[in-house]
Amino acid sequence: MSQFFIFRVLAFATLILTLVPNTSGGTDQRTPISSSDVSAIRALLERYRTGWLANNADAVRGCFTVDAVLLPHHGLQPVVGMAAINEFWFPESSTKTTITKFVQTIDEVGGEGGLAFVRGTSKVGWTVEADGKLQHWRNGGNFLAILKKRADGKWLMSHLIWDDPPNQQVN
To answer: In this predicted structure, what is the pLDDT of residue 14?
Structure first.
């Protein structure tokens, strides 16, 4: 893991946790998240992972706020809002992409009040089928998710940033 990426992730998390207004309906921002919040956040990340493995776009989208922001790797432009996220990950196409592997390790969960973050690593494998040909791909890297707690107590991802090498084709 590069020192630049660690710095970027920590700076991003600090900025979000410091500047974003409290979204939990009045909870003191200086109150650390509870162990039940940590469990709920871990469960959300597991639903996200299993949604991808089930190739269930609705399950994946259901893990995000409607105004969520993706900050993809390799300097790609931010993807803002659910319509843009849908086009980025689930475009209308004759090419079929199937997630075949998604291993996620959560290294840290923290936060205060109605904001939290999750830092970890992931390894993803997928196949692409186009014109009767099948290609196998893989990748892995670091991620940071920022989460907001809704008034009903449900946690959702509002921002997701990841950093990994270029996709690798598997022979």
So the answer is: 54
